[in-house]
Amino acid sequence: MHRPHAEPPKAVPPRGKHGCDRLDNFEEALTRHIPASDITFSFQIPHGKLEMSRLFQFMVGVLTLDIEHTNEVAVGTDPTLSMVITMGYNNVPDGNGEWELLYQVNETRKLSCFLEGEEDGYGEYYDCDPLALFELSSVHHKHYLVNIRLPIEDENLQEINQDIGSIKDLHIVEIHQTGGFTIIWLTMKSVFFPLVLGMMIFFQRRVNQLERAPLLMEKTILSLAIVMTFVNFPLEWLTLAFEIPAMLLISDIRQGACYAMLFSFWIIFIGEHMMDSVRRNSLKAYWQQTMAIGVACTGLLVFDLAERGSQLVNPFYSIWNSQQGSKLAMGFIILAAVCVCLYFCFLLFMVLCLFRNLRMKSVAFNSMPKNRKNYYQGLLYRFRFFMIFTLFSAVMTVVFFVLSQVNEVYNWHLDNEDQPQLHYTSGFFTGVYGLWNVYVLAVLFLYSPSHKDEPLLRQVDQSDGSQVEFEMTEATTSRPTVAASMAHPGATAPEVYQLLGKNAGD
Amino acid sequence: MFNVQSIGINSIETTENCDVIPGLVNRQIAICKRNLEVMDSVSQGAHISILECQKQFHNRRWNCSTVDPFTVFGPVLDNGTREAAFVSSVTAAGVAHAVTSACSSGDLVKCGCDRTVTGTSPDGFTWSGCSDNVAYGVQFSKMFVDARETKSRVSIERRLMNLHNNEAGRRAIEENIKIECKCHGVSGSCEVKFCWKSMPSFRKVGALLKEKFDGATEVAQRRVSSRRQLVPVNPNYKPHTNADLVYLQGSPDFCERNLAIGSLGTENRTCNKDSKAIDGCELLCCGRGYNTKIETITERCSCKFHWCCYVKCKQCTRTVEIHTCK
């Protein structure tokens, strides 16, 4: 609680040489006849001698309020907090210097406060939901300063801030990514980037060596690798030298592209292994699924561009703060959720079809010559391995996600020493990230077309290097009752051949 | 327990101030001189704990009245009663609370993100997070408030009792730390959830300690495997935990005025005629009966708070019956 010496727009630090004249409580303001428009809540981020680091990547501010309930004064029914906010920065050690103005905005927030327990009149504090205050996409400076004033009249001389009850104090909780995590994260990116890039080049060369045109499956895998490389590219290193306010937007887009690609990949992967008589090998065959993904992603992209885009100009802005905005945002998110649900229905349906087909087709192997049987069973084995790996990765992701949501809160109460749960959440993130990178590497490796198996139907070489997993460890695990009509090798060969996704060359 | 406001010092700025604060023992004076920047918060903590005590006990026979600036509550604390137990715990909690608040608003240079009292390092901030640094507040309270319990001043059992209750007061804060969270992620999803710890309001701490006061355990000092310990007098009772209050002897009834035991009596106290509880006239007046006066009072009503910072009210006049103990 402070009163500035100078007129507003200027940002005033809470203490120090240029600091404000300090008020210890509001009774003092009353006795000194200081009007509300002259009272500034001043926050310096971080405190005292500490400094922000560029490694922090982003900075989120949350406002919490101490509002007292008394017999005489209560919070109104639909309270709105109107603030005049100034944000400044400087890079002088200890923050004892002139502050440069960064932003100056007027913002309103709806308060949501309630009383815990019975109202016994005096001195209770309301339990108010924390308010999202700002979201900065780059932490380029060493010290930041936030000044908040709560005026009683707006430009049109309308009364504002009349329903907010008896405010005792404001607090800002500042959240950033810790330096250590950024380093680990960037190191991981820098390691995976060349790995996936290298593997991608290897894959592309293998595809180019083929005599035929690349198949849809191969194109998809290549796009997946390109998107993963795009995600892996350690662009964040640049933030250590330059101010890039669009970084959060870029990383959201990168992440969104990654989800979209992974979802498309699964659909096409399953579809191309379907082993029914439909010939796909073209994106058109998957229009329903890709459209669902497309609509979901576009919805989220529009929302994200609106939210993060406006934050480039005004970091205090959020779609959720206005009523129409939050309805619109909710609309986009519901649309996206519906599309994702539709997608998963399609996916589930296709997986069920696939397993039914697989079970029927495996019968056919028994009547094949040994070489060919081994070859196809190898393909099946690779496919099964891959399905299990996919499922494992997906399950791990969901489990980690749920754990990081639930466990965090759960464990906080018990910690006395350090904050271990914070570390495991970071662990989950790096773990999931590493897992999906390994996944993409595995796809590239296992599905890169072999230049050796051109004459595959004449002779299948057991020692084929790139397909080690052909060894018949699992033999024939499923041995369903033989359906006579399926046992004709000539009829099944081209279909089973689809396992490879190579029906073009047949 | 000390009361800085009573000696007319608003702020403890020099080491000389430490010498004149009433009620400090030598060790506390030394701590005061070493930690000048924290001392304002300490005195703030002592102040809020007195207010909180009075708020929690305003309708009981012993209503936490302060008697003189030097000993603050007077001789009522000389014996190891429940009241003494409450005062110890609420003071220790008040100091921890006020120091933590000051730390969170950046008023204390010494207190950073590190979880020790011994200084701060900027590295701690870069590589890990900070929440309300309750650990620092609690540590400081432990150092400063517990320094009173020297061997020479009080008996060993009383020392054990005070130390236990101080700890219980600090536990009331530590065990009621609130977790608040904010989501962050692609398109506002809860992909990452940031959580931080925030201290409970001191009102809540006071209410909790009042509950502990009502359920306090009577204990006696025993030697358990060569260590002196406080054990419940009644072996059938559940043993107390670190967060419970303990006392050594029963309290007087506080009915009659007896300054030697710190009882102000309940004569002329206002009571509630319709209540059957302790604030009711029957119990509060210890069966002596009560006087009833009819008064016309003017009070504030239909108030509206104007930011900042005054309350504008209408004046309402009504006639009320006031009951006071004989």
Write the layout of secondary structure elements.
The complex is a heterodimer of chains A (506) and B (326).
Chain A: E1 2-3, E2 21-22, H1 26-31, E3 40-45, E4 59-69, E5 80-90, E6 100-110, E7 113-114, E8 124-125, E9 127-128, E10 131-136, E11 143-149, E12 166-176, H2 179-209, H3 216-232, H4 247-272, H5 287-313, H6 323-362, H7 370-412, H8 420-446, H9 489-497
Antiparallel strand pairs in A: 1-2, 3-11, 4-8, 4-10, 4-12, 5-6, 5-11, 7-9
Chain B: H1 15-20, H2 26-34, H3 36-56, H4 82-104, H5 122-127, H6 134-145, H7 156-174, E1 178-184, E2 192-198, H8 202-214, E3 217-224, E4 227-232, E5 246-247, E6 257-258, E7 263-264, E8 270-271, H9 281-284, E9 290-306, E10 310-325
Parallel strand pairs in B: 3-5
Antiparallel strand pairs in B: 1-2, 3-4, 6-7, 8-10, 9-10
GO molecular function, one term (chain A): Wnt-protein binding
Pfam families (chain A): WLS-like_TM, WLS_GOLD
Organism (chain A): Stichopus japonicus (Sea cucumber)
Can you walk through the features of this model?
The complex is a heterodimer of chains A (506) and B (326). By secondary structure, chain A is of the alpha+beta class. Chain A folds into two domains: 152 residues, no CATH class; 319 residues, Rhopdopsin 7-helix transmembrane proteins (Up-down Bundle). Chain A has a four-stranded antiparallel β-sheet with strand order 3-11-5-6, with no helix packed on it. In chain A, strands 4, 8, 10 and 12 form a four-stranded antiparallel β-sheet that branches. Chain B is an alpha+beta fold and 326 residues long. Chain B is built from nine helices and ten strands. A three-stranded mixed β-sheet of chain B has the order 4-3-5. In chain B, strands 8-10-9 form a three-stranded antiparallel β-sheet. In chain B, strands 1-2 form a two-stranded antiparallel sheet. The longest helix of chain B has 23 residues. Chain B is globular, with a radius of gyration of 23 Å. The two termini of chain B are 32 Å apart. Chains A and B meet through helix 1, strand 4, strand 8, strand 12 and helix 4 of A and helix 5, strand 1, strand 2, strand 9 and strand 10 of B.
